[in-house]
Design brief:
Layout lengths: L1 H15 L5 H12 L4 H7 L9 H37 L18 H15 L3 E2 L5 E3 H4 L24 E3 L4 H11 L5 E10 L11 E11 L4 H16 L5 E8 L2 E10 L16 E10 L1 H6 L8 E8 H9 L12 H4 L6
Parallel strand pairs: 1-4
Antiparallel strand pairs: 2-3, 4-5, 5-9, 6-7, 7-8, 8-9
Helix pairs in contact: 1-4, 2-4, 5-10
Length: 344
């Protein structure tokens, strides 16, 4: 048995020296070390040995197995190294060739406008508040002085999921939620950016999904003049130091009094042109003093505090600032359009 083991070892090592390919190496490994290989066959014959010989033969079997496994591993490493060397020799790399340019992206114009608006209002002491896009009717309408069957709900044709759950039509629910969290404590000074959803037909100026930023201030002694001063500061930082704003009476269920806010036409400077339809003014947002009923429902005493609120469409601001004529450009993912806003 010992003689056969030594002969098998020498034969395997001799054949291993002739191997030149990985496939040959695998065949040889199976021949000698596989489940039906020669070493396994020899092990099966150990039962015929006398008890005194079995330990000696068993030790020799282990030594032969270890020697062959090491030899096969070394041979495999040698073949892999040779294959790598041959590949590197045949596939030279010209390190002087210019690299492939990396196509860097750019910030989306809407994201840029949102950041600009946030920076302006953060500089005025506002905090940023967020809320869910799938909202309860209670917060989206009822907390904003729009009870069930209120006719003003028709102004915001909504995507309802159930009778009490809908896709929010504005970011005003964030204002209601924030005031409730404050538990009647002032001051409240927030802006609420986020996506909103309405059942509009998509065209050059309307989209079923768009972005709003609303603002809310609640404190003692808040007046309409504070609202106008805040919006004038915003307009001048966003559109230029010489900008003017105009407030026109309007109606919103959650503010009283309410006002539409116009910006002096940046194209003609108020002289009248095609952009402003010869009026010299462009509407940019809605605003007003927070309705006393809204304050009461949120836990505030309208005899002690007052507030103002405003809401603007980010797409509207972006269209005015960048001269974009069709809102759909913001959502079509046309790289040619987006590359115009690359800061570099």
């Amino acid at each position: 048995m010992q003689t056969r083991l030594q002969e098998m070892k020498q034969s395997a090592l001799a054949q291993l020296g002739q191997v030149a390919e990985a496939a040959q190496l695998q065949e040889l490994r199976v021949k000698y070390l596989g489940k039906k290989g020669e070493l396994t066959e020899l092990l099966r014959g150990m039962g015929s040995l006398i008890p005194e010989e079995r330990p000696v033969v068993g030790q020799l079997v282990n030594e032969v197995r270890t020697a062959l496994e090491d030899a096969f591993a070394n041979k495999q490493a040698s073949l892999e190294e040779a294959a790598l060397t041959a590949k590197l020799t045949s596939q030279s790399i010209d390190v002087t060739l210019p690299g492939r340019p990396v196509q860097a992206g750019t910030m989306h114009p809407l994201s840029r406008i949102i950041e600009e608006i946030e920076d302006i209002f953060i500089g005025l002491g506002f905090d940023i508040a967020e809320g869910p896009e799938v909202e309860l009717d209670h917060f989206n309408f009822e907390m904003l002085n729009l009870p069930k069957d209120h006719p003003a709900r028709d102004m915001q044709d909504s995507f309802y999921i159930t009778e009490e759950i809908l896709m929010r039509t504005h970011t005003s629910p964030v204002q209601a939620r924030t005031m409730l969290k404050k538990e009647g404590k002032a001051p409240v000074k927030i802006i609420c950016p986020g996506k909103v959803y309405r059942r509009d037909d998509d065209d050059a100026t309307h989209s079923h999904q768009f972005t709003q930023i609303e603002g809310l201030v609640v404190d003692k002694g808040i007046r309409m003049s504070d609202l106008k001063g805040t919006l004038l500061t915003f307009a001048r930082q966003m559109f230029g130091a010489n900008q003017q704003v105009r407030l026109r009476p309007s109606f919103f269920p959650f503010t009283e009094p309410s006002a539409e806010v116009d910006l002096q036409c940046f194209k003609c400077g108020g002289e009248g042109c095609r952009v402003c339809k010869q009026t010299g003014w462009i509407e940019i947002l809605g605003s007003g003093m927070v309705h006393p009923r809204v304050l009461q429902m949120a836990g505030y005493d309208p005899q002690e505090v007052s507030g103002f609120a405003f809401g603007m469409g980010v797409e509207r601001i972006a269209m005015l600032k960048y001269g974009v004529e069709d809102i759909r450009h913001f959502y079509t993912n046309d790289v040619r359009f987006l590359n115009q806003f690359n800061r570099s």
